[in-house]
Design goal:
Elements (H helix, E strand, L loop, with lengths): L9 E3 L9 E3 L6 H14 L9 H16 L6 H31 L4
Antiparallel strand pairs: 1-2
Helix pairs in contact: 1-2, 2-3
Length: 110
């Protein structure tokens, strides 16, 4: 169920132990966070010692291209959220590059 909830909105919990409680939204998760989470879940299947990380790097490059095509942030908070997500992806890219160097240096690519 998709909801358009913004910072400052008052919401009511519909299920769980806090059902019926009201609260004010303090922050929201940007749409790009879902893309990063899905990529990390995808990457989880392929991070082994001996595999070749080139397909994961190509997929990561596609994510970077999609993020560049999105409209610019409209608020400082949105800008900061995107910057954090972008840095997470850059760290993952750096890890995969080092992994690639290790695999090829050791002659372990499968």
């Amino acid at each position: 169920m998709a909801m358009n909830v913004k910072k400052g909105d008052t919401v009511v919990v519909l299920s769980g132990k806090d059902k019926g409680r009201q609260g004010k939204v303090q922050s929201t998760i940007p749409a790009q966070a879902k893309v990063v989470v899905e990529y990390i879940r995808y990457l989880n299947q392929y991070v082994t010692e001996l595999n070749d990380p080139i397909p994961q790097l190509k997929f990561l490059e596609e994510i970077f291209q999609r993020m560049k095509q999105e409209p610019l942030p409209v608020s400082r908070e949105e800008f900061e959220n995107r910057a954090v997500l972008y840095h997470i992806l850059m760290d993952l890219e750096e890890f995969l590059i080092f992994k690639k160097r290790f695999v090829y240096k050791e002659g372990l690519a499968t």
